[in-house]
C-alpha cells in the first residue's frame, strides 16, 4: 500500500476538504451565482431605440417623397429592430416590477 499525503496528512489536495453540492437546485438556483443580465437588457433597449429611430426616419422620408427606396428600407429595418426590442424591453420591465410569470431568463442570451 502506498503512503502519501492524501491518505495520512491534510495536504493541499486532500479529498476530505472538498464538499460537493448535494442537489441540482443548490447549483441552479443559488442567488450568489446568478448574474444580472445587463447585456440582455442593454441589447433590448438598443434594438428598441434604433428601431424607433429608423421607423420615425422612414415615415418622415415616406411623407416627404412617396416611393423613395430608402424609406421602404428604413421602415422594414426599423420594424425588424423595433418589434423584438420592444417585446424584450417589456419583459425586462415586467420582471423588474415583479409581475408573476415574467423573468429576465425569458430574454435570450447574446
Automatic annotation (TrEMBL):
<comment type="similarity">
    <text>Belongs to the TMEM134/TMEM230 family.</text>
</comment>
<feature type="transmembrane region" description="Helical">
    <location>
        <begin position="41"/>
        <end position="63"/>
    </location>
</feature>
<dbReference type="GO" id="GO:0005769">
    <property type="term" value="C:early endosome"/>
</dbReference>
<dbReference type="GO" id="GO:0005794">
    <property type="term" value="C:Golgi apparatus"/>
</dbReference>
<dbReference type="GO" id="GO:0055037">
    <property type="term" value="C:recycling endosome"/>
</dbReference>
<dbReference type="GO" id="GO:0016020">
    <property type="term" value="C:membrane"/>
</dbReference>
<keyword id="KW-0770">Synapse</keyword>
<keyword id="KW-0968">Cytoplasmic vesicle</keyword>
<dbReference type="InterPro" id="IPR044234">
    <property type="entry name" value="TMEM230"/>
</dbReference>
<keyword id="KW-0333">Golgi apparatus</keyword>
<protein>
    <recommendedName>
        <fullName>Transmembrane protein 230</fullName>
    </recommendedName>
</protein>
<keyword id="KW-0967">Endosome</keyword>
<keyword id="KW-1133">Transmembrane helix</keyword>
<dbReference type="GO" id="GO:0005770">
    <property type="term" value="C:late endosome"/>
</dbReference>
<keyword id="KW-0472">Membrane</keyword>
<comment type="function">
    <text>Involved in trafficking and recycling of synaptic vesicles.</text>
</comment>
<dbReference type="GO" id="GO:0005776">
    <property type="term" value="C:autophagosome"/>
</dbReference>
<dbReference type="Pfam" id="PF05915">
    <property type="entry name" value="TMEM_230_134"/>
</dbReference>
<dbReference type="InterPro" id="IPR008590">
    <property type="entry name" value="TMEM_230/134"/>
</dbReference>
<feature type="transmembrane region" description="Helical">
    <location>
        <begin position="69"/>
        <end position="87"/>
    </location>
</feature>
<keyword id="KW-0812">Transmembrane</keyword>
Amino acid at each position: 500500500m502506498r503512503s502519501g499525503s492524501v491518505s495520512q496528512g491534510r495536504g493541499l489536495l486532500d479529498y476530505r476538504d472538498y464538499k460537493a453540492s448535494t442537489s441540482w437546485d443548490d447549483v441552479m438556483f443559488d442567488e450568489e451565482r446568478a448574474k444580472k443580465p445587463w447585456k440582455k437588457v442593454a441589447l433590448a433597449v438598443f434594438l428598441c431605440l434604433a428601431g424607433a429611430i429608423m421607423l420615425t426616419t422612414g415615415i418622415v422620408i415616406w411623407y416627404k417623397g412617396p416611393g423613395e427606396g430608402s424609406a421602404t428600407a428604413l421602415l422594414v429595418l426599423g420594424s425588424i429592430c423595433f418589434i423584438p426590442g420592444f417585446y424584450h424591453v417589456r419583459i425586462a420591465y415586467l420582471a423588474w416590477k415583479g409581475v408573476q410569470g415574467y423573468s429576465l431568463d425569458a430574454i435570450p442570451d447574446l
